[in-house]
Amino acid sequence: MDKNHPIHHQTIIRIEKLHKKFFTGKHLFTALRDIDLEIKATDFVVIYGPSGCGKTTLLNIIAGIDQPTAGEVEIRDTEIFELSDDQRGIFRSKKMGYIHQFPLWIRSLNTIENIAFPLLIEGEAEDYALSCAQNTMEELKITDLAKLKPTSLSGGEQQRASLARAIVTNPWIILADEPTGNLDSHASDTLMKYLKQLNKRHKRTIILVTHNQSYWPLGTRRIEMKDGLIVKDTSTG
């Protein structure tokens, strides 16, 4: 296991009294209310619940993308909202990978260059970044996609490339927001297999938001949300 990775029994994410409110038009909407949550370093957390219950908002706050209205988010002794925007962006780039339902790509770059990009913005040399991207693509069996534009790939290929980009920096945490929502069952199963391997073999923390009930058993922990609240939190492994 990577010597820089958190010890597997430790709490990696601690959330206390988290609230998030925002305006939709003239109306104040409460997206999250009084969330308390601790996640261990080797948890595979599956978050589910109806649309609008706060799942994606919670993920974006953990990533430091959205600011909470109140509360604290601590990742390995770092209170991320005490960091400046730039510091938080660097922290996210190094410690977290994010897989979206619809990946965003730099259209002028090919697939391997897109995968290497997080390392380049950290200041790594281009040769090193491309070598890491190549190794990551080999792990995910997508080296044949290296020179293609990611926008030309199938949905399943794009999501595997998105996973490669998410893990190329060797992050502690992988956040996945409905990553199979636009995929067929075979591509979905393949992506889930890789996420499970990252958790079980490589001891990475996985936080997966999904509506697909067939993937809920993959989690070592299942969290149900409703109306901005955690209404059920079940450990399964």
TrEMBL record:
Q: Which residues form a coiled coil?
A: none
Q: Please name the SUPFAM superfamilies in this protein's record.
A: P-loop containing nucleoside triphosphate hydrolases
Q: Does the keyword Lipid metabolism apply?
A: no
Its keywords, alphabetically, are: ATP-binding, Nucleotide-binding, Transport
Q: Which PANTHER family match?
A: ALPHA-D-RIBOSE 1-METHYLPHOSPHONATE 5-TRIPHOSPHATE SYNTHASE SUBUNIT PHNL (PTHR42798:SF7), LIPOPROTEIN-RELEASING SYSTEM ATP-BINDING PROTEIN LOLD (PTHR42798)
Recorded family membership: Belongs to the ABC transporter superfamily.
User: What is the protein's name according to its record?
Assistant: Putative ABC transport system ATP-binding protein
Which species expresses this protein natively? Candidatus Berkelbacteria bacterium Licking1014_96
Taxonomy, top ranks, is: Bacteria, Candidatus Berkelbacteria
